[in-house]
Amino acid sequence: MSGCAKNISAGGLYFETSEEFYKNQMLDIVIIIANNGSHLSLKTKGVVTRTEKDGIAIEFIDLDMDTFILINKYVYDSTEYTV
């Protein structure tokens, strides 16, 4: 399965997909972050917490500290601020 992750945080993500999943389904997840021509591959596990017509909400479980920090850095660096 591959697709587009939306609303990613260190707690989980929303994944756009037309594939069928069910609530509480366990998933092995690989997140690929592209940054300045290089790619970083993060592996973790997740559980489906919500299913919708166009995607699923996934909560990360067993997230190690390094992956937690890298996801937080990615989210922080990707955030646009308007004042």
From TrEMBL:
Pfam families: PilZ (PF07238). Transmembrane segments: none annotated. Residues 6-76 form the PilZ domain. InterPro entries: PilZ_domain (IPR009875). Gene3D superfamilies: predicted glycosyltransferase like domains. GO terms for molecular function: cyclic-di-GMP binding. This is PilZ domain-containing protein.
